[in-house]
Amino acid sequence: MNLPAIWAIYLYEMKRFFRTLMESLLSPVISTSLYFVVFGAAIGSRIDEVEGVSYGAFIVPGLIMLSVMTQAISNASFGIYFPKFIGTIFELLSAPVNFLEIVLGYVGAAATKSLLIGIVILVTAGFFVEIQIMHPWAMLAFLLLTCISFSLFGFIIGIWAENFQQLQLIPLLVITPLIFLGGAFYSISMLPESWQTVALFNPVVYLVSGFRWSFFGTADVGVGWSLLAIAAFTGVCMGVVWWIFKTGYRIKS
Amino acid sequence: MTAIVDVRNMGKVYDGGHVALKDVSIQIEEGEIIALLGPNGAGKTTLISALCGIVTPSSGHGTVGGHDVVTGYRKARAMIGLVPQEIALEPFEKVINTVRFSRGLFGKKRNEALIEKILRQLSLWDKRNSRIRELSGGMKRRVLIAKALCHEPRVLFLDEPTAGVDVELRRDMWQVVEDLRKSGVTIILTTHYIEEAEAIADRIAVINKGQILLVEPKADLMSRMGQKTLRIDLMEPQRDVPAALAAFDVTLSADGQSLSYIYDTGGERTGITRLLQTLAAEGLALRDIQTKQSSLEEIFVGLIKEGEP
Fold first, then answer.
1. How far is it, in rounded angstroms, from Cα A204 to Cα A65?
2. Does the beta-carbon distance from B77 to A252 stay under 8 Å?
C-alpha cells in the first residue's frame, strides 16, 4: 500500500476545499436556512406533526441527506474530472499507485468534505428547531456510509463525463429528482398507495428513512432494508470503479 | 553496462485501429542520454506513454530497472520521472505544493531540503509560493521538470522538453539535463530538433510510423549529417560527365542540365575550388550554383523510403 500517495491525494483535495472554505460551507448553510424558512416556518406552520415529530424537525434528516448526497457527488466528480480536463491525470497514471489508492484518496477527501458539510448543516438546523438524536451512532454510521457511497458514485460520474455538461447531467437529471421524491420532505406514507409502491424502487427512500430512524426512531421502511440498500449501492459503485480501472475506461487507452 | 530500459517487440494499436507502435525493440544503457527523433505522429509519445503506464501496450513488453512496466508497474514507475509534452498543471495550486504532491504520489517521505535544491536548480525557488497560473510558459515547463525530479527518478523521460520554449530557456534546459546526467540519471528525450539531439544526446534513435529505423551513436549520425550537396546548373546540357571531372565524384542529372557534387563540410578540403576551376578551364558556362545541407529530414526521408517496398 502506497500510504504517502493516498495521503498526498487526500491532502491535495482537502486543500482545495479549505482554499474555498467560505464558498464550500456558506452555500449549503444558506440553502439549508432557506429550506427552514420556507418549509419549516412558512409551510411547516400549517402542518401539525408528521409521525409525532414537528414538521420543522422532521425535515432535518432529509435536508442533511439532500446536501450530503449532492455535495458528495459534486465534490468527487469534480475532483477526478478536473485532472482529466486539464491533463494532470497523466501523473496519477504514471505514478506507482493502484486504483484502490487513487480511489481512497479522492473518495476519502470527497466523503470527508460532505461529512463536514453534513455536520455543519446539522448544527445550523439546531438554531432553527430542537433536534433529538435517538441513535447517535447509527446516525453517524448512516451519514458516513452515505458520504462514502455517493462520493464513489460521484467519482464514477467524474470518470464518465467528457465535458462539464455531462458532469452536471446525472446530478440534475437523476439524483435531484430521486432525492426530492425520496421522502426528504415528507413521509412516503403520506403518498397515495400506488405511489408508495413506486417510491419503494427509489433507493434514496431507504437512505432517508434509515437516517430519519436514527433521529426519531420511526421509519418508512425497516432499518435492516435501509442498511442493505446502502450496502448494495456502495458495493455496486465499488464494482464499477474496479471495472473502470481494470479496463482503463475513459482514462487510459 | 546493463540496459536500464529494455523494450522488446512492443506494439500498440489504439482502439480506432491506428497502429502507433510496431514491434519496437530498444535497449537504453544506464546513465546515457538518448534522443528519440521523429516527425509528429511517429510514435515517440506512445512509446514513452507505454513505458510510463499511460497507455497499455498491445503486444511485447518493456522493463525499467529490470521491472516489467505492466506486471511490476509499482517498482518500474517508482524509478521513472516523466515530463510530458503538454503543459498540464493545476492552475490554482502553488508551485511548491504541486511539487510536494508529486513526491507524495510516488510514495516518498517529505524532503523539503531536496525540493528546495531542485527548485533552486531550476530557478523556481523565488516563485515557490506563486500560483501556477501566474507563471510564464517556460516557468510552467520547469515546474513540470521539478515535479518529475522530486521523487529522485533513475530514468527521466522528457517528451519534447523544449517545444515552444525560447532560446535562453532551451540552453538552461540543456544545462539541467547535463547536470542530471552527471548525477547518473538516464535520460530519454523526444524531439524533432536535430540541434537539440546534437547538443545533448549520446545516442540517437530515429523513429517513424511506429518503427525504430535506426539507433546510432550521435557521432556516427552527425558525420552523415555533415554532408552537403553542390548543384551546378549548366548553360548547355551535357551528354556525359566531362572527362576532366572524372577525378571528382560528380553525377550528371538525367536531363544533362546539372551536376551534383557531394562533399563533407567537416573535411580538410571540400574540393569545391578545384572543381570550379576545372569547370572554368573546360569552358563550361554555369547558369546557377546552389548548395544543400543534408538535413535530418532527408535522412528521415531516405530511411523511410528504404523501409518501403
1. 9
2. no
Average pLDDT over all residues of chain B: 88
A179: exposed, middle or buried (C-beta count within 10 Å: 0-12, 13-18, 19+)?
A: buried
CA A239 – CA B201 distance, rounded (Å): 47
Query: For B86-99, how does the pLDDT look when each residue is reduced to its tens digit (9 = 90+)?
Result: 889 999 999 999 99
Please choose, from the candidates A250, A100, A95, the residue with its C-alpha nearest in 3D space to the C-alpha of residue A166: A250
> Which residues sit opposite A136 in a β-bridge?
none
Distance CA B48, CA B51 (A): 5
Which H helix or E strand runs over B250?
Answer: strand B250-252
B108 in A contact zone (CB under 8 Å): yes
Flag if B92 and A5 touch (Cβ within 8 Å): no
| Mutation for B interface: A3, A91, A251, most B CBs within 10 A | A91
For B168-177, the pLDDT digits (tens) are: 778 888 888 8
Q: Is B97 on the interface with A (CB under 8 A)?
A: yes
**Minimum-distance CB partner of B55 among A2, A7, A253:** A253
SS3 A36: helix
Task: Provide, as residue numbers in chain B, all residues whose Cβ is less than 8 Å from the Cβ of A5.
Answer: 104-107
Q: What is the pLDDT of residue B133?
A: 94
Q: Which three cell numbers stand for residue B201?
A: 544526446
Q: Which residue has the higher pLDDT, B165 or B94?
A: B94
C-alpha of A138 from chain center: 16
C-beta of residue A149 within 8 angstroms of C-beta of residue A234: yes
How far does A74 lie from chain B, in Å, by closest CA?
18
- What is the rounded CA–CA span in Å between residue B28 and residue B251? 40
Residues 6+ apart with CB under 8 A from A72: A110, A111, A113, A114, A146, A147, A150, A151, A153, A154
Note the helical H segments in chain A.
3-19, 21-35, 55-86, 89-93, 99-128, 136-160, 164-170, 176-180, 193-199, 203-216, 223-247
